[in-house]
Amino acid sequence: MLAPPAPVPAPAAVAAPVHDAHGHRRPRPEELVEESRYCGQRADVADAAQLADGSLRYDPAQHLVGVLKDAYLVSCKWQVPTHLDSTAGRITVDGTTNLIYCEFNAEQLAALVGKPLDKRPKTRAFSRQEFADLQGTLEKKALVQRLDHVLWQTALETSAGRLPVGVDPVAPVYLKHWPNLTRLHRTPHALRIAALWTTRGAGLLETALTLKIAQRHVFAFYNAALALDLITEDGAQVRRAQRKTKNNRGLLTRLFGWLNK
Prior knowledge:
Layout: H1 35-39, E1 57-58, H2 64-78, E2 82-85, E3 90-94, E4 99-102, H3 106-113, E5 124-125, H4 128-141, E6 143-146, H5 147-159, E7 163-164, E8 174-175, H6 190-199, H7 204-211, H8 215-227, E9 231-232, H9 235-244, H10 249-259
Parallel strand pairs: 1-7
Antiparallel strand pairs: 2-3, 2-5, 3-4, 4-6, 8-9
């Protein structure tokens, strides 16, 4: 009896190329969720002068994201909730508990995010007693969300890969501290950008070149981190923080490891 033919080995899996046709490192598939919505579709520019084009810029102060950031900063500074009146209804921002209360529905919030403000509303602080009297009603009737999530998402949707007016794409930037990327939308290469800006800082265009990634991915992360007040141009502040953690070799090793992924 003839022996059965030996099984034909399955062809080896072909690894996906690390870089795309433009020489950019490919992001992970899960990072591409709604990429065009959050990062835009703009191709890289050759030099910083091209970014002076007004179509590549936006003014956060003329959009909801700028108003919400101001309310967030006031709330954190004075440790009290703040509120503002939008065209859809009142928005209450509580930086002390990382919550935002909108006295209208999610569709109306999306509409506010999607267009410039007709008139910039003023931010006012609640007294502790005023907010205590209102809190029960807000928790039952308002749209309640995590504040960091709303700020992050609003910044991404508003900017869509553009830079804020007045931002120098060459000046080095740093992260004050690491964002909670397990709870926030992870834009392409967010971990690698965060690692670079936490360890040594870099300009926005330099970041794209160093990490071999698209500029729009750098700009998207910058806008989101800016909305949470995570961006600084003070390298000394970052170096002081690094000295405090110099004995945590494991953390530093992980940060540098992300730069090569």
